[in-house]
């Protein structure tokens, strides 16, 4: 995992109110504002690892998504206390 990408994800999320999310583009721009597009693949890989570890939640349509199978437009947020309640 890229330490810079992981740090950017967690730093951006820590600054937000509970339940708010960031986009992969926000993270990539925080890591490299000029070459952010090159960072998008790393952001996804690091986010999947963090989601597997339970440190973040990957969202699709503002609902938690399976980090193994999600596709399309996605966002990230920190876990909420009730994330596991409906499972």
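^ Assign residues to that structure.
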């Amino acid at each position: 995992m890229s330490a810079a990408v992981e740090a950017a994800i967690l730093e951006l999320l820590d600054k937000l109110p509970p339940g708010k999310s960031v986009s992969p583009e926000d993270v990539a721009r925080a890591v490299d504002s000029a070459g952010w597009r090159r960072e998008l693949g790393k952001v996804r890989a690091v986010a999947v690892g963090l989601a597997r570890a339970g440190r973040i939640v990957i969202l699709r349509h503002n609902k938690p998504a399976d980090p193994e199978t999600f596709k399309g437009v996605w966002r990230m947020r920190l876990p909420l206390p009730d994330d596991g309640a409906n499972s």
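The helical segments are 3-14, 24-31, 36-52.
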